[in-house]
Amino acid sequence: MSGLSRNRxxxxxxxxxxxxxxxxxxxxxxxxxxxxxxxxxAKNSVNMVIEIGGFKVTSQNKPKLRQxxxxxxxxxxxxxxxxxxxxxxxxxxxxxVRSGFQYGExxxxxxxxxxxxxx
Length: 119
Fold this sequence. Notes:
By secondary structure, the chain is of the alpha+beta class. The protein has three helices and four strands; from the N terminus they run H-E-E-H-H-E-E.
């Protein structure tokens, strides 16, 4: 993942703004239906919100959406040497996945990934 050093991420807003496009590209794969709408690097975490557009969350499709989101995010995080190195230093990722659909339920899931998540 370009733009992210193997050192601990600095805790400042300027760095978050500079690095956010790299995370957006990595986690959305430039898919127009996916949008990184929130990104903050805190002291020991990276916090993100990803919106998925184009469909409404229902009680019928939510379990599958939650499962798919977790699998995709785990694969992304655990396959990146830079991100796994970041977690090995005691840091974690907190990612909310939401629907970008105008009406209905928004929350799909909240996922926390630590070094133990990739074992």
